[in-house]
Automatic annotation (TrEMBL):
Record PANTHER family: MYB TRANSCRIPTION FACTOR-RELATED, MYB TRANSCRIPTION FACTOR-RELATED-RELATED
Entry-linked SMART domains: SANT
A GO cellular component entry from the record: nucleus
SUPFAM superfamilies recorded: Homeodomain-like
Single annotated GO MF: sequence-specific DNA binding
Organism of provenance: Rosa chinensis
Residue segments, region Disordered: 215-238
Keyword annotations: DNA-binding, Nucleus, Repeat, Transcription, Transcription regulation
Protein name, UniProt field: Putative transcription factor MYB-HB-like family
Pfam family name, one: Myb_DNA-binding
Keyword Transcription: yes
UniProt main location, coarse: nucleus
CDD domains, per database record: SANT (cd00167)
DNA sequence: AATCGCCACAACCGCAAATAG
DNA sequence: GCTATTTGCGGTTGTGGCGAT
């Protein structure tokens, strides 16, 4: 979403305690400007984060400490990962939410670089939308079973397919150029961030941060390449090895595909106690049964779903592969609706 | 070309827990 | 131990973008 510079109307004027303080001090709220972002980044680069109220004052920002903290954590922090939620991340979110419910910050701890806000937004916009389209409550047993027995196995399939396809050349490299043009640079000489020359605020929305001091080190994935990087990025190492999903995804046949994703490995851990993989017919605890035909990639491809191309492939019509991974979510909806129709 | 409605996401709000003084 | 302040979290809202009409 593009963010326009603040307006006069953004000056606070209502009545909570913090707002009254804010009004007394003529504090701003609403979208952040490039100048504010740079001021905040520079201050944190030199003094570190914490003590947000005093930080806001000392940095010369007419913002509440709360607002500064949120801006930093959810947006400016160098390690914040932007761009589409990858398939692996979707899978993790579904799994972790089924375990912990709306504990967004806890879930976010297992998705490096993702913020609780981003995950919460994903859940509300995507997952709840699916529940709505399936005409069931997002917290209902039926929807949870649908996620567990249909959607998640389907995601695993797609991750595997993506891993195979990733070995083929893609045309994703051009995105790097775009990102580079919208990049904030950290100047090591004077410990300051510099906005790109003539930066419109819209550029900030897609900018990556490149820092090279102790606190702000490294370069970060771009919105465009974050999806294609899914199979080899920083998943897994912080993820608990214990998953209920392993019960369902154990012994999955991966002989023909060799996914490199650690996240997928996470869901494929061998469990000697269970011989039934997701390709087999399953009956959910609440009594819904899901036949293997719907979960079999061959029969699935043979069906006349809306986004199937002439080659019987999913979304691989010559466009950017990461886009297709994302857009294919609609075919998931079609697929889930077909399956539920058979129940 | 203009308008409308929906969607996604950044930012805000209120509350509770943690920490400082 | 008490109070004030700060931090963290989950829920909600406001707004720009974009497709449909």
């Amino acid at each position: 979403m593009d963010v326009k510079p603040g307006r006069v109307s953004d000056i606070i004027r209502n009545s909570s305690e913090e707002d009254e303080d804010a009004m007394m001090m003529d504090l701003r709220r609403g979208p952040w400007t490039v100048e504010e972002d740079v001021a905040l980044m520079n201050y944190i680069a030199n003094h570190g984060e914490g003590r947000w109220n005093s930080l806001a004052r000392c940095a010369g920002l007419k913002r509440t400490g709360k607002s500064c903290r949120l801006r930093w954590l959810n947006y400016l922090r160098p390690d914040v990962r932007r761009g589409n939620i990858t398939l692996e991340e979707q899978l993790l979110i579904l799994e972790l939410h089924s375990r912990w419910g709306n504990r967004w910050s806890k879930i976010a701890q297992h998705l490096p670089g993702r913020t609780d806000n981003e995950i919460k937004n994903y859940w509300r916009t995507r997952v709840q939308k699916h529940a709505k389209q399936l005409k069931c409550d997002v917290n209902s047993k039926q929807f949870k079973d649908t996620m567990r027995y249909l959607w998640m196995p389907r995601l695993v399939e797609r991750i595997q397919a993506a891993a195979s396809a990733a070995t083929a050349p893609t045309g994703a490299s051009s995105s790097i150029t775009t990102a580079a043009a919208n990049t904030y640079h950290f100047n090591n000489n004077n410990n300051s961030f510099q906005a790109p020359a003539g930066a419109a605020h819209v550029a900030l929305q897609q900018a990556t941060l490149i820092g090279n001091n102790n606190d702000l080190a490294g370069s970060y994935t771009t919105p465009e390449n974050s999806s294609t990087a899914a199979s080899s990025d920083s998943f897994g190492t912080q993820v608990s090895p214990v998953s209920e999903l392993t019960d369902y995804y154990s012994n999955m046949s991966v002989n023909n595909n060799k996914p490199s994703s650690q996240a997928l490995d996470y869901f494929q851990a061998t469990n000697p106690h269970h011989q039934v993989g997701y390709h087999d017919s399953m009956t959910s605890p609440s009594g819904y049964s899901f036949n293997q035909g719907g979960l079999n990639s061959h029969s699935f491809q043979a069906a006349s779903a809306p986004e199937q191309n002439n080659n019987g492939q999913w979304g691989m019509d010559g466009g950017d592969f990461s886009d297709n991974l994302w857009n294919v979510e609609e075919s998931d909806m079609w697929f889930l609706q077909q399956q539920l129709g058979n129940i």
